[in-house]
Amino acid sequence: MLTCMSAKASVYDGSRLWLPQPVENNAAVIKAPKSSSATINVATAELRSSWTGAPVEMKLIKDKSLGRDGFIITPGKDKVTLTANSAPGLLYGAYRLLAMQTAGKSLPNEIREVPSYDLRILNHWDNLDRTIERGYSGSSIWVWDELPATISPRYKEYARANAAVGINGVVLNNVNASSSILSAGYLHKVKAIADIFRPYGIKVYLSANFAAPMQLDSLPTADPLDRQVIKWWKDKASEIYRLIPDFGGFLVKANSEGQPGPCDFDRSHAQGANMMARALKPHGGIVMWRAFVYSPADADRAKQAYIEFQPLDGQFDDNVIVQIKNGPVDFQPREPYSPLFGAMPSTDCMVEFQITQEYLGHSNHLAYLAPMWKEFFSYVNPKSIKAVAGVANVGDDTNWTGHPFAQANWYAFGRLAWNPALTGEDIADEWLSQTIFNGCNVPAEITAEVIDIMMRSREAVVDYMMPMGLHHLFAFGHHYGPEPWCAIEGGRPDWMPSYYHRADSAGIGFDRSSKGSNAIGQYPDNLAKRLDNPALCPEEFLLWFHHLPWEYQLPSGDTLWDSLCRHYERGVVETRDFQRRWEHVQPYVDPALFDDIQRRLKTQVRDAIWWKDGCLLYFQELSRLPFPDDITPPVHNLDDLKKVNLGISNFECPTADLLNRQR
Amino acid sequence: MLTCMSAKASVYDGSRLWLPQPVENNAAVIKAPKSSSATINVATAELRSSWTGAPVEMKLIKDKSLGRDGFIITPGKDKVTLTANSAPGLLYGAYRLLAMQTAGKSLPNEIREVPSYDLRILNHWDNLDRTIERGYSGSSIWVWDELPATISPRYKEYARANAAVGINGVVLNNVNASSSILSAGYLHKVKAIADIFRPYGIKVYLSANFAAPMQLDSLPTADPLDRQVIKWWKDKASEIYRLIPDFGGFLVKANSEGQPGPCDFDRSHAQGANMMARALKPHGGIVMWRAFVYSPADADRAKQAYIEFQPLDGQFDDNVIVQIKNGPVDFQPREPYSPLFGAMPSTDCMVEFQITQEYLGHSNHLAYLAPMWKEFFSYVNPKSIKAVAGVANVGDDTNWTGHPFAQANWYAFGRLAWNPALTGEDIADEWLSQTIFNGCNVPAEITAEVIDIMMRSREAVVDYMMPMGLHHLFAFGHHYGPEPWCAIEGGRPDWMPSYYHRADSAGIGFDRSSKGSNAIGQYPDNLAKRLDNPALCPEEFLLWFHHLPWEYQLPSGDTLWDSLCRHYERGVVETRDFQRRWEHVQPYVDPALFDDIQRRLKTQVRDAIWWKDGCLLYFQELSRLPFPDDITPPVHNLDDLKKVNLGISNFECPTADLLNRQR
Predict the structure, then answer these.
(1) How far is CA B84 from the centre of its chain?
(2) In the CATH hierarchy, which fold is given to the domain comprising A119-432?
(3) Stretch B630-658: mean pLDDT, rounded?
(4) Which candidate from B627, B657, B663 shows the least CB-CB separation from A583?
(5) Residue of A197 and A27 predicted with greater confidence
(6) Beta-carbon separation of A636 and B601 below 8 A
(7) A580–B632 CB contact, under 8 Å
(8) For residues B60 and B33, what is the distance between their CA atoms, to the nearest angstrom?
(9) Is residue B45 over pLDDT 90?
(10) B601 — contact with chain A (CB < 8 Å)?
(11) Which of A585, A644, A660 to mutate: most B Cβ within 10 Å?
(12) In chain A, which residues fall in CATH 3.30.379.10?
């Protein structure tokens, strides 16, 4: 049997990502436009190195319909013509050509692509000490201590990988921002990175701490209407742009989870954002102002971002974009879309997805997230938002992302930010052909099987973690395992799972209906009406919006309790099925990769059982109902599970050893 | 719903075993024979206390066909007549009456029972420090330190329980015997126990250390032909019988696993046994001489007892019984019967079963062993043996046996020693009605379900531990978990699992065929011929007798590898099914009992998966074959499992906590 290994020169370790592989002694004929640039040089070099097809002629044209970054590929008789309005457009076209070549796809008569968004941004939650909040793939790739003198070769590889998938902006540091990033010393380091990114069409952005003027220069206030403060930010912007003329702008987490912000000075989010935006405006920079706010107030947490931001509609300057998490709570395995989308028609809004799997099994679980993001776009018209951001899952692990399949989420994020109409299946197919199946002779049915695993994987996680609209049943702090029973004395109520599941002897679910918190009232009338009626509310959101009796009868005829049990069961069964199907892939991939995935799937199955047992046993203490007979009975004891303490922080993924020891 | 609890006065904790419950202000009319005795008094008292039916008249008669211990129950117009040749016969009849009453069974026209064996003996492997070798239910019930002054009330309860089930002999101490038990001080303690047992028709026996004359009285030798030694044993016998006139005799483990014996002095087992037998003979005592021998020799261990003992046929005195373990190796979950049975026609032989679950999951796993013992009797004619012994599973736990269902094995051993023709189902039914279902209003279908669990349980253990004739894949020392990979440098080869499974890249199994060790040649010709042909050898013994290629095709059409995988899978699936069915029992039993069993079943399922994964992953490294698609893939990693070290001794059962911590 012709295996991957017999066909491939080197072992697959994931370090190459989806980047085109250089062809030895390649004889590609590539013609670049006369008005050359660093970016065009990159495009030319990539094609020269790896393109094995007909000669390629790159041309800069003027075609408004292509937007800033679009391109056209036209295969001709004896050459392929690649045209774009801009050098980045040519670069994106070049990468598309190479991706199609790797996938073994023949070129159609014309490829015409225009990205849906001008801003396609990765948010790194990287701290300056190289820990990464909610990062599960090693340390930050930014080696601040060595910068700017020493430039890791990974910066360039990272830029290439992003450009190849259409990402054109990177926020380098955590939204829980250290002011130090804005100090002169750090800005020189940032400049070094920006210089590397520039040829790849990527702008650098920074997360800014709203209190930076106080923290860096001992100003007595950070009040956005204070003239000293305003001047401080203006001067800071000038300082940045002197070093980085194409600096992208600021991302700001303000008055959220303890971060400083304008409300500390009785100013609104709009006043704070506009002040910073005006400092950046002369230089062409923008402010991305996060709407992730929830005070420890009485109001339903899911309502708070809307309550705080919706009234500000129309008050933001035109270089401010309000960045809204996809759902109203916090990156749960499944949430309904945030009702802020569509509720601020006079404000530029962007969505913030989470690529890193904070709530989806960290680097241990296979969870392909394209279907989750597509689900968002099925509710929110892609044209109604201005830009797309994703919280990166990148670290300094050899394969960049910890779980080999987590790469596919980085890839899929970029592709969907480019074009939300792409299907999850097509993106998975693209990624597979350029990565783990690259150079392997994989039969179509095996590829289909892996795509199938990927496509079902996120729903499996939802099923074994928190189906039917349940959310935030996570262990305190690290968000890895189940802890629906978690109750920390004196803890913020809205940080406790019971705040969200509201399970008691009568039933389960958060009543957000018109009779409850009326979070439903924040949605458009038509939708709200449907959500408000438990019989019409989609099952996947049922317990998000309703508190229902354990024996409530679903339209399916099942009781709520039985259905809940069956969802958890299905999560385990699905995960086991992934494991079984993965076995079929063995002959076709690198043995170490095969083993690695096999091992992670085992952990995932064990975790799925842990989740299922923990949640069902806990809820059973309240429901006092038996498990339906078609459910595999629990193997754990609730009191044992309650003792589990992984002892990991918010930037660690539990290792197999740790999981073995602790359960 | 009328539950067990609403009908029952007290909580079920298993401490009462299957003993009849006293009825308050009972008005039973019981007529005892004139020639009273302590034993008849017990029978009378038991009936007076608990019998609620018609008056009972007990009569001593002379009827040779009833043997020593048989009885007849004849329900008449206005009384029930119970007749027997002996007081113990009446006692057994009384207990049978009470058992039938508890089970709610009406009396047929006549019950006539004659036990198949005169000797029905429990072997305690209890050490004098109260540890129990292979005991998993607490410390020894014999509190030697306090004896003879203090008499635990449990001695009498233990005697009642044994009498109620027909057991009439107890070896008090471990076969790995301390000579101290034969010292004057200890013999007084033994006498105290014997005095309590006597009214219940139970004789006391002791395990004797063959070197006792050297150890206790500094004789220079223990040579059985030495006159001083002969005299020592004669004197010791007289000393014992002065204290205990009905002392039963000695059980001897000689020249086995480091124990001293006649072979140390170049004498045969027969010479050793006869010397001791002659010391006991004047007093009516017997010697039970164990055939459990295997030297660290080249010969197949399964052959050694036969090689050593068969030539001695005819050389043993008539008060010696050779005690042979049911199988040729050592109490494995499944073994073929030992070929010594039937091979010593001129020697009295008895079978030694193991009630304690040394190799069947200790006190954590539900394994009802009646089917295993019935399987033995399907190969060995019950009439061909003289007596039956069982290694006890009794300890000082509240419920006596650790696992509540392990009581059923003690019960079933007694019942089968009484009558090997009883069915496992009937015995289970009897036991349930007198124990966990006693006083509960349990529907017939629930009883049937629990009997079904019990009847399938031992085969499930075989499937998840070592199906198809595999054996001794146990972890070194404690025999709890899997360790087919175990290899201890310098260790006795026949103590290593690889000695038994012989798995290599070519195949698996121990070639004991005529082309291999020819252990098959020790069996009768007809059977040997069938066993020798892998196509005719019963699948359950296939790898016991044959080394076969991984892809060997079974009559079923499956390959050996696939079938092995499916057996392991079935073991897990069965155990899960027990767990599921146990849920149905909840309304009918004591809640604490329900929880306890539920918890143990969880452990059993986890262990079944541990076994399956450990064995299959290990064997897969050799077979290099994929798991069939209908097998649930492993959840463990072999290297993790290889690291498991439970750190328990040969008298501990791993607790759930330990299992959680170590895996």
Answers:
(1) 29
(2) TIM Barrel (3.20.20)
(3) 88
(4) B627
(5) A197
(6) no
(7) yes
(8) 7
(9) yes
(10) yes
(11) A660
(12) 12-113
Residues of A annotated as catalytic are: 257, 330, 358
**Contact between A440 and A4 (Cβ < 8 Å):** yes
For residue B91, report the phi and psi dihedrals to the nearest 5 degrees. -60, -45
CATH 3.20.20.80 residue ranges of chain A are: 119-432
Positions of B marked catalytic: 257, 330, 358
**Domain span(s) for CATH 3.30.379.10 in chain B:** 14-113
Of the partner residues A580, A602, A660, the one whose CB lies closest to the CB of residue B629: A580
Which of A601, A606, A640 shows the shortest C-beta gap to B660?
A: A640
Report the 10 Å Cβ neighbour count for A160: 21
Q: For B193-200, what is the mean pLDDT?
A: 98
Asked if residues B422 and B430 have their Cβ atoms less than 8 Å apart, the reply is no
- Determine what percent of chain A is predicted with pLDDT higher than 70: 98
Tens of pLDDT, residues A203-227: 999 999 999 999 999 999 999 999 9
* pLDDT 10s digits, B575-601: 999 999 999 999 999 999 999 999 999
Q: B119-422 domain in CATH 3.20.20.80? A: yes
Domain with CATH 3.90.1330.10 in chain B: 463-510+547-662
Cα separation, B322 vs A651, whole angstroms = 67
Beta strands (DSSP E) in B546-607 are: 548-549
Fold exhibited by the domain A12-113: Chitobiase; domain 2 (3.30.379)
pLDDT score at B311: 97
pLDDT tens digits, B291-341: 999 887 778 999 999 999 999 999 999 999 999 999 999 999 999 999 999
Angstroms from A368 CA to nearest CA on chain B? 21
Taking the domain B463-510+547-662, which CATH number applies?
3.90.1330.10
Indicate the length of chain A as a whole number: 663
Q: Provide the pairing of β-strand A249-252 with A203-207.
A: parallel
A576 contacts in chain B (CB < 8 Å): 632-633
**Which residues on A lie below 8 Å from B637 (Cβ)?**
599, 602, 656
β-pairing, B71-75 with B111-113? antiparallel
Q: In the prediction, which pLDDT does A660 show?
A: 67
CA-wise closest residue to A392 among A75, A123, A84: A123
Interface membership of B642 toward A (CB under 8 Å): no
C-alpha A208/C-alpha A45 separation (Å) is 36
Q: Which B positions 180-239 lie with beta carbon below 8 A of chain A?
A: none
Cβ–Cβ of B602/A661 closer than 8 Å?
no
Looking at residue A6, its pLDDT comes to 43
Model confidence at A4: pLDDT above 60: no
What would the two tokens of residue B638 be?
A: 């072999």
pLDDT at A211: 97
Q: Which chain B residues have a beta carbon less than 8 Å from that of A635?
A: 602, 605-606, 609
Q: What does CATH list as the number for B14-113?
A: 3.30.379.10
Considering chain B, tell me which residue range(s) the CATH 3.20.20.80 domain(s) occupy. Answer: 119-422
B605: which chain A residues are within 8 Å (Cβ-Cβ)? Answer: 633, 635
Chains A & B: contacts with CB separation below 8 Å: 56
